[in-house]
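Hi R.,

Here's the chain you asked about this morning:
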Amino acid sequence: MQPTERFSNRVDNYVKYRPGYPDALVRKLESEGLAAGAQVVDVACGTGISTELFVRNGYQVIGIEPNEAMRDAALRQGFDVRAGTGEATGLPDASADLVVCAQAFHWVDLPAARAEFLRIVKPGGLIAIVWNIRQRTASEFLVELERLLVESSAEYAAKFSADKEETVNVAAVFAPLPVERWMAPNEQVLDWAGLKGRLLSASYVPVGDEAFVERLRAVYDRHQVDGLVRIVYECRLYWLRAD
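And here is the predicted structure, written out as tokens:
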């Protein structure tokens, strides 16, 4: 399956159960020069989780998304979302004050996306690459969840069990431009339906695998408190300023 089609059968869970991003992320970019009401281009915006963050904070946002089902979900929320890819957005040169790519930079062709991001950002504008990184050892629940994912998905074990900064070296992609790194805490508190939906929204979790769901339920039952479990993330921002 092509990367652009990986989430077509996971859209509902993606909309309901994927984590958002903290407002502190926007405040950080503002402190680095992002002006109020500026033009943001959200590349590979999916169902609009990162789009919503910038719209809510008063920015003009164009989302670019190749997956039709995810794009439709974003459009239903009233966002300006257009067909395109990280390698070919279809936007004019120097049209964005900020180009952001949240939770998706590991899916693009890196040299082509680098060239495209630098083409559409204005001189002196910002490029931001963002991930919510699950803190796999922050609790006994998260340790056990990580073990379950490694044992249940060969793809996860091979590609996703290491931190994304190891999967994509953002500084190397954009060299010689200097890349800065910033982090903020983030979390989800989920009931059983939320935990199940959160995991089934991930591309590496097998769809229709009842054995996986049963094992996940057992992990939940062992660690829930008052029906809830807590997933701790580190929101990581890698950002640079265009020449």
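One quick note: The mean pLDDT is 93.

Cheers,
M.
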